[in-house]
Here is the input.
Amino acid sequence: MAEVAGADRLDRADGSSQGGGADRVDQADGVDGADGADRSSQEDGDPGGRTHGLLADSWRTYRMVAGMWIRSTMTYRSSFVLTLLTSFCATFFDFVVILLMFGQVEGLGGFAFAEVALLYGTAGTAFGIADLTMGSLQRMGRRVRDGSLDTFLLRPAPLLAQVAGDKFALRRFGRVLQGLFVLVWALVLLDVEWTPLKVALLPVTVVCGAVIFSAVMVLGASALFWMQDAAEVTSSFTYGGNNLLAYPPTIFAQDLVRGVVYVVPLAFVNWLPALYVLGRPAPAGVPEWAAFVSPLVAAACCGVAALAWRAGVRSYRSTGS
Here is the structure.
């Protein structure tokens, strides 16, 4: 009798526990489903949440892809150091031209050596950062032409982050070091009246300049969806723009200066902020306060670049598009 009673109690306990467990699972599923539906509905109704999620996914993807190539590069440390020094020296020859020029003249377009060095350093550092992070986009034309872009489209990750991080070339950091070297040299030689506003403007100039250059690179890569062989044309706005901004605007024709200010806003990379730091008037009739709108210009360039990239991806039809 005791065994029968014990068996009955065990059966009832098992049934109660199974029933309670099933109820709890059902309740949990219901709660999870409701929470998931709520989260989905909130995300659908919150464009800011979708944008934040896309940016987070893009950063995570870019970090993973670039990190893989960095680890591969650092496997051969001696080779990396040599290529880094080679990159530093090769880009420094551009500044050697300015050094030789000032060995023959005392000024260039009314600018002293230290002032030209400031222009060169800010432009070179900003472009170096953009080239380091987004330089791989130059291969977009070849990827579209041979269909290798399809490989990236098959992966469940943001396309731009994959393409920008692929074949990440850490040797390009030599260009950043060279620009920083010249910038520090210029700051040591400059004789200007420093204010807290001017001191804060310099790092903002470099960061915003890098963002503007990066946006121009994305615009150029977007154009390669339709013009696969136009990489040199797009490079004229990036590498050519960097060379242009290294010199004072007073040595160029006013029509060219207006184009750099009002059409392709590369003047906001360093010309306008640097001229404010130097106490010189802005070119092309631009008001003085324009030296502080580089962040707004950078944000606008990013918006235009995002729209162009989206249009390019939508037009892609694999090889031959």
